[in-house]
């Protein structure tokens, strides 16, 4: 199949290479993405006003595509805030502390609990939900704070976020960019996430084994109340980083806390059951989780704040949306550029491509396949490296649209496309989502009282080994 490449194709490819180069240097890519949109628009419309207007139009297009993901994250964060302030999160997790009797159990226990909570709440809120309660218990039985931070990072920001099987924000971004169904990417990612998670967490555990011993008591600061909590083993590694102001608690009767602590997990369990029974996936599954979270937020707010419950519900939602748009704000310009590589170019600029074109990225993929002898090994290694590079900005999400686009270029067949897309997604999230980039590690580092740079250093070998093994597995799966 012959594809006619025009200057628009080459300019778009040049900006992709430039964006990757800027990411390698750990610089922000927003301005260069805007420049790419403007240049693409200028070539597509051959008018300056069309080019300038295309910047805003592409932002709107990207925002529409990302809106459901932004909303679900914002709502989940809003709900988690009210659970933290009312103490319901402590009641929910406290029964599990009776099973933590050794540092080994603490490491794996914190990890698996963090993974489960992160699947529903996403890792950043889950760090507060899990770490505030389990950290003192874990340190008391001999797990150093750096070990708790590693467990929360690898299981939450690594395993849970790279798969993202409940909220489905990550697979939606990569699947849309690759032109694949979300379910195809999610299915392909399962063995890769399992391999990556197993290798990295076991390696990190093995490296921690000498530090799992008790020592003299020290004091940690409770991230919610700000009060000192006495624990026995000494803090390891660097001194705690500066803490954020303590969150004020909202009193709630213990009996009511227990009722909500029982009902909330049951509601989400019902959601999961309904997803399987009704075959709800993608946007439908996200809508079910989001609607449930809103109802929980309203119920807890009314019960905790009573007469001011309505106003406080709005305040919690404002906090949630502030968080959501702060996280996804840098993503929108980047996504806007990469959406131009697919359907957006036709919708925004009135089909400037030659007849028979299937989008800029698809055209480049066809042309590349005809020029370069691609194979499974080259494709898998390329996707891992690309995903890791895009994660260097510390977001994890800002570059996975690029990952999906490049996966469609390197896919030699319909069967290999989901695997390559999932591999790039796993690499991008593990590197940039909060396991290797220091400025992305602050939530877990802060709650555990360790340096984010030390945490990144400790995660480096396990994550790199995991990526290597996962890439090898992907080669055999293609």
Automatic annotation (TrEMBL):
Transmembrane segments: 6-24, 31-60, 66-84, 105-121, 127-143, 150-168, 188-208, 259-279, 285-304, 316-340, 427-448, 460-477
Phylogenetic lineage: Bacteria, Bacillati, Bacillota, Bacilli, Bacillales
Species assigned in the record: Paenibacillus pabuli
Keywords: Membrane, Transmembrane, Transmembrane helix
UniProt entry tagged with the keyword NADP: no
Coiled coil: none
UniProt protein name: Transporter
């Amino acid at each position: 199949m012959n594809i006619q490449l025009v200057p628009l194709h080459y300019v778009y490819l040049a900006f992709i290479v430039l964006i990757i180069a800027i990411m390698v240097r750990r610089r922000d890519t927003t301005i260069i993405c805007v420049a790419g949109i403007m240049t693409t628009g200028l070539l597509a419309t051959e008018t300056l006003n069309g080019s300038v207007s295309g910047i805003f139009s592409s932002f709107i297009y990207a925002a529409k595509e990302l809106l459901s993901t932004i909303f679900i994250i914002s709502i989940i964060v809003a709900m988690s805030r009210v659970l933290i302030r009312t103490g319901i999160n402590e009641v929910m997790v406290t029964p599990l502390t009776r099973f933590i009797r050794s540092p080994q159990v603490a490491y794996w226990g914190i990890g698996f609990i963090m993974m489960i909570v992160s699947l529903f709440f996403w890792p950043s809120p889950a760090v507060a939900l899990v770490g505030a309660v389990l950290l003192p218990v874990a340190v008391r039985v001999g797990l150093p704070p750096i070990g708790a931070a590693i467990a929360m990072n690898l299981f939450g920001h690594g395993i849970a976020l790279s798969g993202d099987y409940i909220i489905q924000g990550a697979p939606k971004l990569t699947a849309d960019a690759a032109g694949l169904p979300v379910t195809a990417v999610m299915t392909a990612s399962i063995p890769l996430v399992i391999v990556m998670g197993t290798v990295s967490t076991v390696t990190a555990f093995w490296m921690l084994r000498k530090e799992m011993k008790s020592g003299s008591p020290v004091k940690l600061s409770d991230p919610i109340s700000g009060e000192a909590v006495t624990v026995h083993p000494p803090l390891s590694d660097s001194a705690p980083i500066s803490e954020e102001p303590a969150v004020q608690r909202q009193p709630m009767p213990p009996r009511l806390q227990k009722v909500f602590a029982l009902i909330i997990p049951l509601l989400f369990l019902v959601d999961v059951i309904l997803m399987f029974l009704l075959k709800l996936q993608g946007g439908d599954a996200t809508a079910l989780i989001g609607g449930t979270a809103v109802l929980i937020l309203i119920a807890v707010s009314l019960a905790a704040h009573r007469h001011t419950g309505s106003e406080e519900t709005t305040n919690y939602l404002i906090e949630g949306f502030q968080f959501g748009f702060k996280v996804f704000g840098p993503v929108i310009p980047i996504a806007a550029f990469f959406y131009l590589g697919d359907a957006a170019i036709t919708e925004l600029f009135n089909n400037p491509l030659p007849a028979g074109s299937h989008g800029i990225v698809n055209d480049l993929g066809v042309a590349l396949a005809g020029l370069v002898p691609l194979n499974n090994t080259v494709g898998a290694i390329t996707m891992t490296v690309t995903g890791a590079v895009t994660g260097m900005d510390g977001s994890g999400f800002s570059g996975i649209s690029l990952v999906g686009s490049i996966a469609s270029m390197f896919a030699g067949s319909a069967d290999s496309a989901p695997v390559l897309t999932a591999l790039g997604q796993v690499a991008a999230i593990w590197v940039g989502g909060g396991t290797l980039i220091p400025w992305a590690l602050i939530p877990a580092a802060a709650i555990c009282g360790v340096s984010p740079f030390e945490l990144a250093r400790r995660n480096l070998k396990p994550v790199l080994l995991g990526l290597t093994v996962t890439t090898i597995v992907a080669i055999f799966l293609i």
